[in-house]
Amino acid sequence: MKIADRYVLREMLWPFFGGLLSFVVMITGHMLFQAVEVMVEHRIPLRDVLQYLWYQVPTATVLALPVSTLLAVGLGVNRLASDRELLAMRVAGMSRWRLLQPGLYLGLLASLMSLALYHSIVPRAEASADVLIRKIAFSRRSLLVRPGQFVDAGHGVTFLVDETAGDGTTLNNIHVFYYQPDGFPIVFSAGSGRLENDDIHIDRAAFYTLTPNDDLTWGEVSDVNINLAEVGTALSPKSDKLQAMTFGQLRSEARRLEEQGAEGYRQYSVEFDWRMALAASCLVFALIAGPVVGALGHTQSLVGLLVTLLVVFVYYVLMLWLRMLAQAAVLPSSGVWLLNILLVLMGLVLLWRQR
Questions:
Q1: Which end of the chain has fewer CB atoms < 10 Å from its terminal CB, N or C?
Q2: What is the arithmetic mean of pLDDT over 92-120?
């Protein structure tokens, strides 16, 4: 790496790491703000809240890396241009393509960091966060029984309670859905029940299910009991959420389901391409930052910061839109790359016009 490259790169590193830290704090702070009401209402220990936020730092980091890259390269080029240092480099014979290289080095570094995080750290953190959330939920009965909301208790049991009375131990209009591994689902319905320690206890309930001949059958059953604590401790510590899966697990699961002809393979393929496209966006933003600053006429840093935030906001909105289209089979899973391709073309056009 030449002296000029190291000099330009140093101008970008401080904004990069400063912006990365700032955006990670902003994202995790937003998560904390959303959780404040639940924390106060259900008296969740601060230690558990901070532990959950710590598990969200890797995910916040991969979201902040593209923003930090665009900010760092944009501000670095803006500073050099404002002091006429870029002009001096051009006079010395460096082409615009050559001046882009330090920013591309930084973009490549950010992309590799994002891929490394997505490869192992983010999945492990998401799995740990999922386990922590379940532990908190099963230690707070008010989080387990939420009137008017379906609650997945695990092991094929989902229940719905219309309302609670008294101190929350009396449950009215209870519906329990049990998905049998080797049979038809069973629906239990009861007018009332009670929450005793970690159990939902129903004295008498009506049940409805299908016979092997698809005939509806029903009857009554007594002493229906759902042991929430037992369900919670029996859960595997390995989360099955998409976010908790590595690249290899996503690809193998997508391939397995596709070979079986199942429609569920698409969500795994979209998640894989989404992660790859988001990681590549760091390099894409490093490419377009210089030409965009040049097109703005070397504006002041504050204006550059505002433009950066606007560009990233629009980028994330459009990326989410492309992801929804891909999940709905309107686009192939690789459709999430369209925005990156469009930005690269835009950067090349701006660079060509400024040659």
A1: C
A2: 82
Q: Are strands 216-227 and 199-210 parallel, antiparallel or unpaired?
A: antiparallel
Q: How confident is the model at residue 62 (pLDDT cuts 50, 70, 90)?
A: very high
Overall average pLDDT of the 203-225 stretch? 79
How far is residue 159's CA from residue 176's CA, in Å, rounded to a whole number? 4
Contacts of 211 (CB under 8 A, 6+ apart): 184, 217
Q: Any bridge partners for residue 178, and if so which?
A: 157, 186
Pairing type for strands 157-165 and 199-210 reads unpaired
Contact 311, 70 (CB under 8 A): yes
Exposure string over 164-200, b if 16+ CB within 10 A, otherwise e: beeeeeebeebebbbeeeeeeebebbbeebebeebeb
The C-alpha atoms of residue 78 and residue 298 are separated, in whole angstroms, by 6
DSSP string, 276-292: HHHHHHHHHHHHHHHHH
Residue with token string 């990365």: 20
Cα torsion through 31, 34, 39, 45, rounded to 10: 10
* Domain limits, the chain: 3-139+274-353, 143-234
Q: Which amino acid is at 264?
A: G
User: CB atoms < 10 A from the CB of 279, how many?
Assistant: 22
Q: How far is 236 from 330, CA to CA, in rounded Å?
A: 35
Q: Residues 143, 137: contact at Cβ < 8 Å?
A: yes
Q: In terms of pTM, does the model score above 0.90?
A: no
In 3D space, the residue among 337, 338, 282 whose CA is nearest the CA of residue 105 turns out to be 282
Cα torsion 254, 255, 260, 266 to 10°: value is: 30
